[in-house]
């Protein structure tokens, strides 16, 4: 059976690479277009700047570390004053492809999202006013905002716009699987391909499909069998108020899933093996053999694409007028 | 008087640029040599890797942020579990030029230093055994250690060696002042030059001299007048046991001092203006006018050199065998 699937997929390749791609439920990641490069450079600095937090210690990159797949690789995050967060931090990689932001979709897009963590007392614990005061006390920032936005006013609107524009560049094309989709049949092994066949034929692609292999719908966690979650995230119903939306979460992207452990909204699945096994049982009522699970895991690892590739940004120094960080409440 | 000094310095330039440099108490930063590039690349990853900490959240770069002058810009650092550190984190930039490491010099060199924070319960709160277990569970690291060191054994010795080799690359040449030293008389302004003259003629160069403009001796903090320090760091005497060494600290480098606020071992001086004013009074018994202090500060800002300039490193992912981070004591 596995052999059969593999070779029928391989047959597809004979036609043309475009055909293969067009027939598959997963699409290659398209290059980003219409990007404002000046905003990106500014947004990159802000993304790495811990002065947007009350303590002066926590930046976006603390929890969405771009050296580690855009996550913190913790079950739940560490916020201001070492507070334990309520939910697993999703990757920012390819987050521009999501239909909405956050597990429950409560932010419409990246710009709407970016203001949240700055003022969240459990995350960066600053306020928009304070963050703007900090930025406005730093002439190099003020100059750059002026160059980028063409006016003197720095408000949270420009800050979130620049961060969102930077995040749009965080797509990860050229994964082995994408190369395979584009017609390079040697880009992944027969073994990995057999995992893809299982992924496709078992029904995983019903929810994990498209460019991001997820990110484009909200689905119940625990369709066939209930999931015993840790924490008390209720999912989409928190946004819609509808009882039918209880425990529906945004289907996470499986792009770079090799890097974004631990898994699920509560971070309780430590390994991909565990996550795949659970998905099979809870979402599809299917118990994979160890061998099948291993093949699917091998396939999922072919979804790791080009990671962010830029110079470590250099932040403009504070001045005597810059509000001081307040790391310790005294 | 200021005019006079300025023009005599300018006269020096007429001879040859080498002559000028040779006559000055401050030397240009020499390019690094005899660097093992493979060790550097490995050390860079380790430097950015929060998995060397118990929580999985704190890396060397958390406290010595290479986007911010190699410091955290906090009075005292935030360590594991948000513990408040006892002393200000010095920059790692140009730290290879120091006669010894730490404010009290208790580590002979960068290699001897690098093991400290990993196992320090107030900083990264891991242990050498745990850190090595983490590394050894990650095949990409194991392979890289083998390539770099030529043998299979990964021990704390190779870890600290690689980190130290990376740190040796963190020198900051080409500051405006170094360009001036090399003969480009337009590299700094007359005003900045007058600050240098004051710095030289008032006696600051007695302690702040050489390649790092400091870092090459231990000196009493509060020579003429006592310093009312916060915290209870006792300085060199903690290492030598000699009473005469009480309150002697390693003279900090003034390279990139514009970026390494706040100042002094307790981080109590928030601005360069404050630090220069205090240095004048406590070390030299001299009260600078506001104008003089401003000129010295302007000079000190010409010591900001080329900042670290490399791609954000990508860390190899953990595996199922990797010991899990323990951010929260439960
Ligand atoms: C203290 C940790 C922490 C910090 C700091 C932090 N985040 Fe997050 N981030 C999270 C967590 C946790 C979530 C998930 C919250 C939820 O879904 O309810 C999240 C969600 C997101 C998402 C949504 C991704 C998705 O697929 O839904 C984006 C985008 C994002 N953060 C970007 C940022 C940016 C930009 C910053 C800085 C301005 C930032 N984050 C700061 C922890 C953090
Ligand atoms: C009915 C929709 C649905 C189906 C079918 C489905 N998933 Fe999921 N998947 C989800 C949702 C929703 C989540 C997030 C659940 C949560 O975090 O609570 C998820 C999470 C995951 C994760 C964890 C990703 C992360 O970053 O946390 C993996 C891996 C995964 N799915 C793989 C699979 C595989 C393999 C299959 C097929 C065996 C599958 N999924 C089938 C909806 C689905
Ligand atoms: C929690 C904060 C923190 C972390 C994490 C940390 N450091 Fe430090 N570092 C400090 C502090 C504070 C000092 C000064 C301690 C002293 O002098 O007693 C210091 C001193 C140093 C020095 C001496 C510099 C000098 O001029 O004397 C070097 C070099 C250094 N650290 C490198 C590292 C490396 C490498 C790592 C990671 C393996 C690291 N640090 C992790 C806070 C930290
Ligand atoms: C007798 C030796 C000595 C003299 C003279 C001296 N310094 Fe210092 N300087 C030190 C020491 C020691 C420290 C560190 C003290 C501490 O942190 O407690 C220091 C610290 C500094 C700092 C803070 C650096 C940092 O990163 O924290 C600045 C700025 C500075 N000196 C500038 C000056 C200037 C300007 C003069 C002349 C007016 C001067 N110094 C004269 C020994 C000296
Ligand atoms: Ca995750
Ligand atoms: Ca400092």
From TrEMBL, chains A, B:
MF GO annotations: cytochrome-c peroxidase activity; electron transfer activity; heme binding; metal ion binding
Names of the cofactor(s): heme
Region (Disordered): 308-330
Keywords attached to this entry: Electron transport, Heme, Iron, Metal-binding, Oxidoreductase, Periplasm, Peroxidase, Signal, Transport
Subcellular location: Periplasm
Keyword Transport: yes
Signal peptide: 1-22
UniProt remark on cofactor binding: Binds 2 heme groups.
GO cellular component term, pick one: periplasmic space
Protein name: Cytochrome-c peroxidase
């Amino acid at each position: 059976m596995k052999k059969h699937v593999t070779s029928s997929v391989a047959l597809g390749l004979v036609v043309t690479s475009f055909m293969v791609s067009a027939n598959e439920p997963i699409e290659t990641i398209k290059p980003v277009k219409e990007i404002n490069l000046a905003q990106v450079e500014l947004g990159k600095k802000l993304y790495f700047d811990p002065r947007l937090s009350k303590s002066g210690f926590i930046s976006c990159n603390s929890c969405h570390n771009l050296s580690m797949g855009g996550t913190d690789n913790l079950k739940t995050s560490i916020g201001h004053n070492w507070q334990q967060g309520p939910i697993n931090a999703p990757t920012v990689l390819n987050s521009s492809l999501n239909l909405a932001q956050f597990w429950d979709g409560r932010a419409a897009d990246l710009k709407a999202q970016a203001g949240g963590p700055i003022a969240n007392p459990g995350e960066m614990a600053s306020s928009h006013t304070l963050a703007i005061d900090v930025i406005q006390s730093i002439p190099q920032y003020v100059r750059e905002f002026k160059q980028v936005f063409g006016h003197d006013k720095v408000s949270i609107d420009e800050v979130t716009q620049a961060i969102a524009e930077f995040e749009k560049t965080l797509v990860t094309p050229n994964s082995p699987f994408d190369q395979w989709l584009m017609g390079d049949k040697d880009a992944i092994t027969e073994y990995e391909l057999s995992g893809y066949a299982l992924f496709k034929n078992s029904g995983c692609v019903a929810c994990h499909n498209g460019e991001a292999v997820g990110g484009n719908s909200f689905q119940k966690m625990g369709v066939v069998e209930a999931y015993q979650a840790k924490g008390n995230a209720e999912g989409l119903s928190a946004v819609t108020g509808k009882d039918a939306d209880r425990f529906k979460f945004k289907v996470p992207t499986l792009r770079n899933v090799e890097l974004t452990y631990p898994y699920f909204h509560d971070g309780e699945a430590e390994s991909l093996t565990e996550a795949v096994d659970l998905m099979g049982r809870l979402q599809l009522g299917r118990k994979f053999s160890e061998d099948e699970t291993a093949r699917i895991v091998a396939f999922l690892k072919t979804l790791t694409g080009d990671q962010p590739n830029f110079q470590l940004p250099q932040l403009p120094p504070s001045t005597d007028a810059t509000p001081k960080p307040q790391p310790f409440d005294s």
